[in-house]
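We emphasize that the prediction below concerns an isolated chain of 378 residues; any contacts that depend on oligomerization or on bound cofactors are therefore not represented. The input was used exactly as deposited, without trimming of termini.
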Amino acid sequence: MRFLFVHQTFPGQYLHIARHLAADPRHEVLFIAQMSSLELPGVRRVSYRFNRKKRADLHPSVQDYEIAIQRADVVEARARSLKALGFTPDLIIGHHGWGEMLHLSDIWPGVKMLGYFEFYYHVRGFDVNFDPEFPLLPDHEPRVRAMNAINHAALALEQHGQTPTKFQLSAYPQWARPQIKLLPEGARLDICRPDPLVFRDVLEIDGMRVEPGDKLVTYVARNLEPYRGYHVMMRALPRLMAERPDVKVVLLGGDDVSYGAKLAGETWREHFTQLLAGQYDAERVRMPGQVSYDAYLKLLQRSDAHVYLTYPFVASWSLREAMACGCAIIGSDVEPVREFIADRKTGLLARPLDPDATTDAILEVLEDQLRIHRAHDL
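Result of the prediction step, given as a token string:
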């Protein structure tokens, strides 16, 4: 079969499936994406450039949609070139979030499309207005609803859709759900797995040595930002480190903003590091940014307590991978996390946005002497 994948960031959610299909000589796998140095064996790349900015002369509520249509135009041009070269896919698979797929059914009418529907935006009941520390301005609420314009245009294609969790499906209106199938995402268990031997070795990260007798608390997010509870984790540090002098903490994540608002003139990491300066032992805390995948996995395998905090929003891949690595997880008590973690059965859930509740849960995990995966106690 001929497969065409479409995602602005290669390979996006399609790393494992594209690699699996490309390994079969019966399949031809093409991928339309923005320029990137990444490669997958057997996957042919069709790259495009897109660096257009939002137009200030447009109403703020339509700026994102205008960018999406421009991106769809660029991808359409690449697709028409493929068609002129004789390529017709048997199936198109891609992410609807950025508009790239909107014109493809016009180029290849009759070709089935499986589109990723990631999230339907609401002004209440989900991520927006969840955190009273960062309220949404009332005049921004129409802009949040307008972010669903791409969702609606994608649904109007009347093709096949998928989403990975019950929570994400529940965000979509009742009338849209029959078009979207639940296809769970997991982790590669041959790679993401416990390794008891790491507890016997010294782990070095960003100049800090984690000795076999140390307790390691980990936190992972694509970027260090409030949507993923970074502010809560930082505020948990003073009490956590005062009560446990044997604890060392590693917070992985970049300084960009994936979700929510940016700060003017500084990053969220800089903001909270300065705000809490002198309140915790910074020598026992490291924020090395984004690290290699191997280093990330080693960190999860060595973790004594892994903290996953989030607003009611899309659950991260890191949560799935932390579970696969056997981490003892402390999570936010919100619906997307409850879908993965059963409180006091497969992890501990802490009251969201509450640093003390998060600290209590971390301390409880660290004090639990029944954790069988700690090889240095065997």
